[in-house]
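# step 3/5: fold
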Amino acid sequence: MVVVNRIGDMSAEMTKWRRTLHENPELGFECHETAAFVAEKLREFGVDAIEEGVAKTGLVAIIEGNKPGPTIGLRADMDALPMQEESGVDYASKNDGKMHACGHDGHTTMLLGAAKYLAETRNFAGRVALLFQPAEEGGGGGEVMCQEGVMDRYDIHEVYAIHNAPELPVGSFATCVGPNMAAVDSFEVFIKGKGGHGAMPHETADPIMAAVALSNGLQSIVSRNHCATDDLVLSITQIHAGTADNIIPDTAYINGTVRTFSKDVQAMVIGRLEELCKGYSAAYGVDAKLVYHKGYPATINHAAQTAIAAAAAREVVGDDKVDDKAMRVMAAEDFAYMLEERPGAYLHLGQGESASVHHPAYVFNDEILPIGASFFARLVERTLPLNG
């Protein structure tokens, strides 16, 4: 493993930053203290410019290289999750009901470590735009930053990001060309029937029967309406109906999630949901109304930038710890919006055995902080070489 020496020397300092952030998690676009902490550190490092208040609490910082050249964007997410921490660490969250359970405190720290190194050395021809983003966890902060013109305003040519991965060995990288993470959508079905006495079902239009049958029918979308080699997930996650054992209710509710990598598959799913809702409405004498919510699009890596990022990762951790043909992931990520605006790549950095992300017992492994920071630094120096 060839962690950049200067960054390796910062390991203890980076761990302190990360644990400070961990103790003070913030949600969504309300990352005020986090952004203030980041801005303070960036000013200490001597970056050339800082724009605050992007997407409400995001920041963009610029580091100029020793020669002119194009701009590379490096992104880190800053927000936490609305959950109670159960990790047992002595630096656990001080904010009730909020926890850095996805490692965004670590991602922010990695980018800060890279920023300190790059501001000291400036061993590149061009400039780096550091994108500290709020509201990845459902708020779409990446999309808002793009909508506010960050990519054009700073003339960003390429953009990169990494995410910790508890399921991968410590210090290993995994990525792939093309779809890396899925588009995430949700749907709701509101079923209106006719309630009545449980002893006289023939006088009702039972929404529970319709909900159960429809939920089973929806599984045929995955099993019978798409190619088995093209990844698709459709999961029913909620069914609600009824209040008592002797009353057939008027209404029932179904909720679920859809994960796709292709817009064509997504369109097929929406069409079949609509058709099945109509069909089961007719079959059971109810009205099943579909409401479909499109979420983050698929995170799609660009081929050339994925190769560049994998090469940088190999310099840091070695050939045997980089898999650039890894399986894609059915979870979603709003870095997708930045990759729709500019070519780039998204990588997963292994942190070893631990509770999964989004689990109350999750613990970020500080051992990977200098690895992630070194990756960002070498990525910049490879992509923007002084002697290129």
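# step 4/5: annotate
The first helix runs from residue 5 to 9.
# step 5/5: archive (pending)
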